[in-house]
Amino acid sequence: MILKTLRSTLFLLLACAQSPSPRAHKHSRLFAPEANRIEIPYEYTGGHMIAVRGSIGTHKNLQFLVDFGTTYTLLDHTLVSERADGQKMDITHFSNSIQSSETVVPEFRDRRVGIERLHAFIVDMSQIPAAPPETYGVIGLDVLQRQNVTIDFVERKLVLSFRGLRRTPGAPGEM
């Protein structure tokens, strides 16, 4: 009798483990209320780096890395036509140091999110060895800390709930 009870219990546990939870399909709704969140699809580049798509001025569909370990947002020097006259800073990446200067970009956007007057540091992205050649910038903690950010690894999207950034109405887009 005990053996039969144990087998039945084991069978039920295995059956429950095999069947998907009804909440599993709605897991993204757990991140933030629908009205307060924006989902931005991402892809992996270089095998492990999170990359999103976005625009700066007339430059469209650019790849940007999302890095929670980078303090300030970095943009490639090819995106800024005027000379950056702001604060100068040396950015150290392991063994090399890169000169940068601060600038204000009028608008950084995707189809859903716009950041006006984005403060960023201008660098030559080709001097950052870890950045793939098609990368035009790194979105750093200075931007990421403005909202709650959840990485949905299953559906490959960033789930953001914003404070101080405006949402751009429109079709699904990239950042």
Compose a concise summary of this entry.
The protein is mainly beta and about 180 residues long. About 10% of the residues lie in helices and about 45% in strands.
Present the secondary structure layout.
Blueprint lengths: L1 H17 L19 E4 L1 E3 L3 E8 L2 E8 L7 E3 L11 E6 L2 E14 L3 E11 L11 E5 L1 H4 L2 E6 L4 E6 L3 E2 L8
Parallel strand pairs: 4-9, 5-8
Antiparallel strand pairs: 1-11, 2-3, 3-4, 3-7, 5-9, 6-7, 7-8, 8-12, 10-11
Short descriptors:
175 residues; mainly beta; Cathepsin D, subunit A, domain 1; six-stranded mixed beta barrel; three-stranded antiparallel beta sheet; 12 strands; disordered C terminus
Q: Would you mind describing this structure in some detail?
A:
The protein has 175 residues and is mostly beta strands. It has one domain (26-167): Cathepsin D, subunit A, domain 1 (Beta Barrel). 12% of the residues lie in helices and 43% in strands. The chain contains two helices and twelve strands. The chain has helices at 2-18, 141-144, and strands spanning 38-41, 43-45, 49-56, 59-66, 74-76, 88-93, 96-109, 113-123, 135-139, 147-152, 157-162, 166-167. The strands form two sheets. The protein has a six-stranded mixed beta barrel. Strands 1-11-10 form a three-stranded antiparallel sheet, with no helix packed on it. The N and C termini lie far apart (61 Å).
